[in-house]
Specification:
The protein has about 110 residues and is α/β, with parallel strands linked by helices. The chain folds into 2 domains: about 30 residues; about 80 residues, Cupredoxins -  blue copper proteins (Immunoglobulin-like, Sandwich), CATH 2.60.40. It contains 1 helix and 8 strands. The strands form 2 sheets. It has a 4-stranded mixed sheet with strand order 2-1-4-6, with no helix packed on it. A 4-stranded mixed sheet has the order 3-8-7-5, with no helix packed on it. The longest helix has about 30 residues. Bound molecules: copper (II) ion.
């Protein structure tokens, strides 16, 4: 009886472990997308991104709250992005570009264009 309960607990634990491993693998795949920024939990991810001149960065808002993508030098400014909306900008000139959310200015990221 106890053995049976223990086996069941082990199976559940193993299943949950597999779920965590699968989630981690999925996160790694998303992180490898070179010029993509995800907006989630009121954060830009990654918070710093290095790309080559001529690259286009795509931001995608996964939050239920709207966010914007604003450059502090006024080079680009997205409309309010609702959930799953995207915004793209092509970085032609090398430099360091600071980005924040116009609605939640504590959300920040830095994009370095080489
Ligand atoms: Cu925001």
């Amino acid at each position: 009886m106890l053995t049976k309960i223990f086996r069941r607990a082990a199976a559940v634990t193993f299943g949950f472990g597999m779920f965590i491993a699968a989630s981690a693998a999925l996160t790694v795949v998303q992180a490898q997308e070179p010029d993509a920024v995800v907006i989630k939990n009121f954060m830009f991810s990654p918070m710093s991104l290095t790309i080559k001149a001529g690259s286009t960065v795509t931001w995608k808002n996964l939050d239920g709250e709207p966010h914007t993508v604003v450059n502090d030098a006024g080079i680009f400014h997205s409309a309010a992005l609702d959930q799953n909306d995207t915004f793209q900008f092509k970085f032609d000139k090398p430099g360091v570009y600071k980005v924040f959310c116009g609605i939640h200015p504590t959300m920040k990221e830095t994009i370095t264009v080489q």
